[in-house]
């Protein structure tokens, strides 16, 4: 058996005492190290975000743990059949999608989840940047190996969107909306973004990575000035901090449940749920398709995931890429 | 400037003399090394496949160069607009597709070609093995970044197929046929296979890798016993050895020309060419689609690359994955 790290041993000692007090002597005995070494470990824990007070004659007291996303904490009691079969939680990643793709190339199992506290090169659609400060948000990538043809896989973007909306509703009571193809909005401002990537051969999907970035507790001053769209976070929109752990667990469970539906019934129920979450459904829209402007009424999603717009001439246009705005 | 390797210097000396004779003294002077060192370099060149004779009082004579695929030799005078913009030629690769995908992930330019003399883990479709002995065949992967949506990209398999058929015709005079989705046949036996892979996000292709394996000079005894289908090589079918260099150059030029057509006119002309190369066009076929058997007349390719089969009930079935056999 692997010996636990000193940090894990100390945290475990705190958890075992009802009042959270542990004497320095006790820690020193358990670890078999000097009191000076104990003090250094406590200092390291404080630097990692643990609020630990030293009360003379009683010892150390753990008053608050940081909202860290440890795999064991996420997985404990998680009700998932597949998603989260393995969870990797990193302090920092270039991008969780890149990490998940690398692991996918190396043969990682279906259901793997990669989470990072912060991203140094967070990716949005079309090579855009995704602002990814540490300690406040969720950056997660889920690796799936769906037994479908490559042209089916992009439809999973809508699955991510519905799962994120449900997790937001579960954790805040707020009802988000979706914006085609891959944004989640609260009060018209972007609160989450999706970036699905795929590796495939002609008639087989190697893997799909569902990349999900959700602004949880990000503060207004943490957003860059030059954002293309107004942005928000769950904390800004709801007025209170959201537990990253609770949100992550809720999201993985919603993703897992929807993926089981997808595997059994296909994308139709997902598309129905997405269309109901889309504020523009039934409204007049203008779509900028690479400088070709299409105007009409948004009627929903086609079987292939295209945005369907009925023009004034009565023709239904299928749109596969573009920016949609209300008219 | 980089100093050329001794080997390159010696080969360059041979090329500069009309009769191919170079004295050991001359080589020794040029390289600034002893006659013993020169002799060792000559021995290494012989081991690499160069036929070099030592004639007393005249020196060394290069009588024949091995059929190696050096980037400079392939590129010299190559008539391509994009394909082969950069060529990497490896003695061995796990798989040229894997190498090209890795380079694609790192941002390699459109048109990159990766060639390997042999592959240690040559890949066929659906994770099958592709027999890849050294010195006799062509294993090449072409990286393209087509400005199309992900569901368009699998159509490029047909482009590879047509290009391989044309290169075979150019170099041997033999007329191959194509088998849906990705095989090239000579006299009913498999002579080449294609494995296209893609990395994409929902509405953007990162890159496509066209993997091409062609059995050029492989001998009958080099094929494994347990092949799923009868296999052949250009040398077996034509009765004479094929220059790997000439074939590679022809293939890259055909690929480049067809890719220009694809970018300008779309896949329709490629599909027409492919359908004409397919022996089963207009014939009765049976398609095994994951244990669902479909019988009917093969009528061609749909706009999305599906195999179109007209059943006896008159219905046209679009087939996206399966094994096709004549009835």
Structure described in brief:
2 copies of one chain form a homodimer. The first copy, chain A, is α+β, with helices and mostly antiparallel strands and 327 residues long.
Please explain how this structure is put together:
2 copies of one chain form a homodimer. Chain A contains 9 helices and 15 strands. In chain A, the strands form 3 sheets. Chain A has a 7-stranded mixed beta sheet, sandwiched between helices. The first copy, chain A, folds into 3 domains: 59 residues, Winged helix-like DNA-binding domain superfamily/Winged helix DNA-binding domain (Arc Repressor Mutant, subunit A, Orthogonal Bundle); 207 residues, BirA Bifunctional Protein, domain 2, CATH 3.30.930.10; 43 residues, SH3 type barrels. In chain A, 31% of the residues lie in helices and 29% in strands. Chains A and B meet through β9 of A and β9 of B.
Top keywords for this entry?
homodimer; 327 residues; alpha+beta; Arc Repressor Mutant, subunit A; BirA Bifunctional Protein, domain 2; SH3 type barrels; seven-stranded mixed β-sheet; five-stranded antiparallel β-sheet; elongated
């Amino acid at each position: 058996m692997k010996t636990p790290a000193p940090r894990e041993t100390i945290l475990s000692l705190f958890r075992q005492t009802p009042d959270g007090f542990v004497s320095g002597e006790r820690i020193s005995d358990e670890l078999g190290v000097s009191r000076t070494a104990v003090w250094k470990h406590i200092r390291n824990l404080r630097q990692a975000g643990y609020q630990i007070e030293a009360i003379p004659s009683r010892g150390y007291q753990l008053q608050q743990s940081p909202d860290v996303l440890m795999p064991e904490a996420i997985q404990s009691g998680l009700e998932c059949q597949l998603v989260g079969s393995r969870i990797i939680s990193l302090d920092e990643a270039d991008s969780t999608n890149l990490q998940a793709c690398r692991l996918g190339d190396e043969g990682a199992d279906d259901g793997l989840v990669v989470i990072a506290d912060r991203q140094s090169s967070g990716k949005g659609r079309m090579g855009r940047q995704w602002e990814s400060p540490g300690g406040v948000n969720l950056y997660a990538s889920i690796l799936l190996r769906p037994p479908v043809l490559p042209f089916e896989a992009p439809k999973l973007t809508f699955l991510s969107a519905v799962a994120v909306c449900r997790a937001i509703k579960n954790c805040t009571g707020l009802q988000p909306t979706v914006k085609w193809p891959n944004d989640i909005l609260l009060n018209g401002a972007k609160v989450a973004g999706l970036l699905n990537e795929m590796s495939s051969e002609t008639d087989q999907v190697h893997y799909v990575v569902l990349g999900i970035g959700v602004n949880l507790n990000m503060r207004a001053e943490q957003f860059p000035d030059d954002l293309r769209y107004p942005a928000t976070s769950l904390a800004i929109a709801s007025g209170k901090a959201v537990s990253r752990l609770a949100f992550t667990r809720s999201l993985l469970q919603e993703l897992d449940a929807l993926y089981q539906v997808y595997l059994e019934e296909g994308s139709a129920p997902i598309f129905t749920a997405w269309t109901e979450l889309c504020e523009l459904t039934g409204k007049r829209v203008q779509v900028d398709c690479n400088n070709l402007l299409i105007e009409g009424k948004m009627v929903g999603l086609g079987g292939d995931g295209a945005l369907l717009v009925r023009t004034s001439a009565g023709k239904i246009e299928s749109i596969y890429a573009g920016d949609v705005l209300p008219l």
